[in-house]
Input
Amino acid sequence: MSTTRKSVSIVIAGSGGTGAITAGSTLLAAAARDGHYGLMTKLSGAQVRGGEAAALIEIGRSGIDGPIEAQPDRFDALIALDWENIQRFAPEIPLDGDSVVLSDPKAGPVPAVIAATGARILEVAFGALAGSVEGGRINMVGFGVAARLAGLDETAIEAAIRAQIGAKGEKAVAASLAAAKVGAEALAALGVSMALSPGEKKARWMCSGNDAVGLGALRGGIEFVAAYPITPATEITEWLAVEMQEHGGRVVLAEDEIAAINMCCGAAYAGVPTMTITSGPGLALKVETLGLAIAAELPMVVVDVMRVGPSTGIPTKSDQGDLDIALHGTPGDAPRVVLAPISIADCAATTERAVHVAEALQTPVMLLSDQSLGQTQTIIDIPRTRPAPLKRLVEPAVTGPDFRRYALTESGVSPMPAPGNPGTQWVADGLSHKESGHPSNAAVDHIAQMKKRLRKLETFDWGDTWGEVHGPADATLALIAFGSTVGPAAEAARRLTEAGTPTRVVALRLIAPLQKNRLAEALAGTARVVVVEQNASGQLFRHLLGERALGPGAESFARPGPAPFRAAEIVAHLTAETREAAE
Output
């Protein structure tokens, strides 16, 4: 069976510790070197070691559709290094009668849940092949099978192995190359090929959303990071801990989530751009201090890489259920900025913009990523544009006894000099205060400062930060999405348009303060509006309704994680709803 293809989707699966994820990362790296785009999602359990592990990879589409931003509807091949715990993630690996499963007969019979898909079962003696190579590992045999299946160039294969394994020494590299070779030869003997059409070899980035958030923070000027380890956000802290040693700044591993955001308050007060990093349970602990930072007008970026909740939930799976707490999670009226990257590639630019906005508006900025964006690796074109820099206003017009830290300016932004400057002493706390910063119980002072904090968000020129619109000008159907749902929504829109229903996608980046005029322009001319989001209660839909940003008849398509949205699911839902309405 031999074909030349636009793309190929492959799963490399095994129990924790078999190296399935490493094999997947190496395959993605080889694809990049061979000129292809690609996307790799990781499946793993919440346990520290053991359990299930799988790398879900799609590669190809070079120079045709651009970067891959959503998981495929199905997978062409499953390379099973073993069958342990397969039942835990089998529903997330859709196979069908056109799929191929390659497994080691000595690993046991094919599980019923896999056999029931109708996929063609082929045998590859992964264990014996690894044993035939000195120092050979089973995952590199699986990598060799996958690379040969996709028809990747041998030079790209070797370069990827050296890049991924090279730190372990030449002996490990040689063993990996040999293991990959015997895997490729075993596949060739089976006569199976899903070779890709030639790629377009040029410089691209291979990164995850978490990597890109770290890069954006560095580019934005973050100099102090305080965080507590939490899945799936910890990789941002780890990335910055290394990079900030070389580029300046400090990363502090705090004793808990509350200490981390409190440290950020101190750093922001001292004049340093600062960031804290967390996920849902950690954000819940930061809420009280978040209110303090809003009241005291202390700039900081609060990154929330959302995961399945509530409580501990499923730390390694994706969901978008933290939107409500990001929008409203403080006592009293506390207006804040909520930004959400619309793709992995966008994580860098949106984070950089978040730093600029926090500094310019002297306020906390919530940055909502999610596990699917954060821990998915992708191959993207190198971004050529960056947001224009913005800085903190530090020079007061008046010093001495008449200096007013919280002056009621037209823009709502008042000078924030660093401590120690003569004639500009000021106090920052959570009490209602006068323009001077001194506490006040007077209603007139409280209301004036409330309006000031809201005014600076409402009068700021957000420009294109608000979001993006993709699709035909004559679209009759609009899908509104944010975060990791944008990719599958965009693919669904493309299919619907090709099938005769012109569809556009409105990708919201600035969720608060909502730019209702821009959203109205984006929806103009459409007859049907559907909000697509990955949470159980339709939090974005309710937010848009509350802001009166949706017309009558707008629909919600919301469901919780942990399973990702796929384009086929969105298309099926929309076409089914259309049929029901017609009937």
About this structure: The chain has a mean pLDDT of 94. The CA atoms of residues 433 and 439 lie 4 Å apart.
